[in-house]
Amino acid sequence: MKTLIDAYYHLLNRLLVATVAILVIPVSLQIVSRYSGLIPSYIWTEEMSRFLFIWMVMLGAMIAIREATHFEVDVWPELGAKANAALRIVSHIFVLIFALVFLYWGIKFVQFGWYQESELAELPMPFIFIAWPLAGATWLVFLAEHLVANVRILAAKDAS
Amino acid sequence: MTQAVLSPGMAALALFGSFFILLVVRVPVAFALGLACLPVLLFEPRLSPMVLFNETFKSYNSFILLAVPFFLLTANLMNIGGITNRLVQLSRTMVGSWPGSLAQINVLLSVFFAGISGSSTADAASQSKIFIEAQTREGYDLSFSIAITAVSAVLAVIIPPSILMIVWGGVLSVSIGALYLAGILPGLLIAGAQMATVHVYAKLYNYPVYPRASFRDFLCSVAQSVPALLTPFIIVGGILLGWFTATESACVAVLYAAALSIFVYREMDLKELHDALLETGKLSAVALFCIGTASAFGWLLAYYQIPRALLANVTAWGMDITGVGFFIAFIFLVVGCFLDAIPAIIIVGTTLEPLARSVDMHPVQFAIIGIVSLAFGLVTPPYGLCLMISCAVAKVRLRYALKDTMIMLVPMLLVLAAIIVWPQIPLILPRLISPEFLR
């Protein structure tokens, strides 16, 4: 199971690197095409960069749940390992609710936009909207992993 | 719009109440903002959770915010491509012989860095790695080293280019070119205040001093850094001359930094490039995801007309322009303690704008007050990103460096007060260079 999640996580990382790298291209083209007759003025460079950008944000937000790098506010004094694990479980349950919301209404969101096409390049919009339910599903997987780990800490005997 | 079931007061209580409770149990800010919207969205018959999707989609589907990953990428490329090293060398020849040399270099490097990248978090991340360990090895206190690295990092969003200015200009329709010019003087004043603070610290604690660099060394390092130092002129100049838009300028910064790294300094390899891209994607996505849910939250505040209800009392106080300025700075400073700067601009900036307009405050001055106050929020707990990053690099908890950070903030706050009392400070450069942008 863990290797499967690891593989998925690496795939997400690869995709994220690709989106950032490719993102530079349409915006550069947009500047260049304005000043040279060599390249036809691609009107969809702007749209393409926005769509890549959406995927970059959503992919990064998925990865950050596994790495626990989403910014949080720390108002607690130094906690013991168990208290910390308990607090983590509480916060993860709330994030879990949010993940379920993204999954459930995200599917409706995709269905709603099923026949929509983008304004300029006429791409089918579900390609974009699918990022939301996918994020919800991905969070569920990563959160389950965290929850199991924290429950184990709580259940462990006071050996440490 | 008037037929909402919940009254503004009730809705505000539900939204802010659940947001703060979620923050306390350590739900990440982005998720706390989204979850806080849920009860209201489910309860109000005319709304549905679809609002959450429409608003997040709308905020990510924006060309303006593309500047965020680009500026982070610029900073990362500078670090791996050898640009940062050249700038450290240059700073050393300039201020190395002053008391507290390494800390002075730290501040001056932030000024140079700020002129190339527009991201404070990137500045804090890279300079923490360079300076904190080096300073403690030379006998500086750890808490001082963390604090000066974090507070000098905030210059990146005040000195152009700046992510916050691009967002502010986009959200509140102010000329970004004018904001860039307006940020220069306040940024340099804050840098000066920080250097003075370092000077006092260095005298008090006898921090080490480097031997004076020869004038020849100085000229050599200037020659080496000239290509890098040209970046701010290319970016700001390009925008003022209308060559490219603000977002495109961030892309130009990426291309320029990449070109310097590959063709001039030749220090980049593929593995590092991959890591730079990955780091950029991760950090910008985390910051941007938060903007999406913050927009949904802000949309709900507007739906219930909560900002208007809150401001109704304030306008009745009858403050003059300076009073309003201090009030605005105070609100942004408080909000900056709890929220990231970009969501704060979206939620609070739009809320306060009518107030600023009511006393004829210049939109550019309003913007600079807001951005400088929010920049200070980057080092104020509980949610001060730059301080969090520096502490994470030094592997200590945030409160460890808190006292020194607060001491360093005092002179910086005086600069903020000066910006409020004398509108000329931000306005003089745009008036001189491009008065057409101020209209």
Q: What would you say this structure looks like, in words?
A:
The complex is a heterodimer of chains A (160) and B (439). The model of chain A has no long low-confidence stretch (mean pLDDT 86). With 160 residues, chain A is mainly α. Chain A starts with a helix and ends in a 5-residue tail after the last helix. Chain A has five helices and no strands. Chain A is elongated and about 70 Å long. Chain B starts with 7 loop residues before the first helix and ends in a 6-residue tail after the last helix. Chain B is mainly α and 439 residues long. Chain B has 21 helices and no strands. The longest helix of chain B has 34 residues. Chain B is globular and about 75 Å long. At the A-B interface, α1, α2 and α3 of A face α1, α2, α3, α4 and α13 of B.
Annotation field: number of helices of chain B: 21
Percentage of β-strand residues of chain B = under 5%
Backbone shape of chain A: elongated
Nearest-integer average pLDDT of chain B: 88
- Largest sheet composition of chain A: none
Can you summarize the main beta sheet of chain B? none
Question: What is the rounded Rg of chain A?
Answer: 20 Å
- The class by helix and strand makeup of chain B works out as mainly alpha
| Percent in strands of chain A | under 5%
Q: How many angstroms separate the termini of chain A?
A: 28 Å
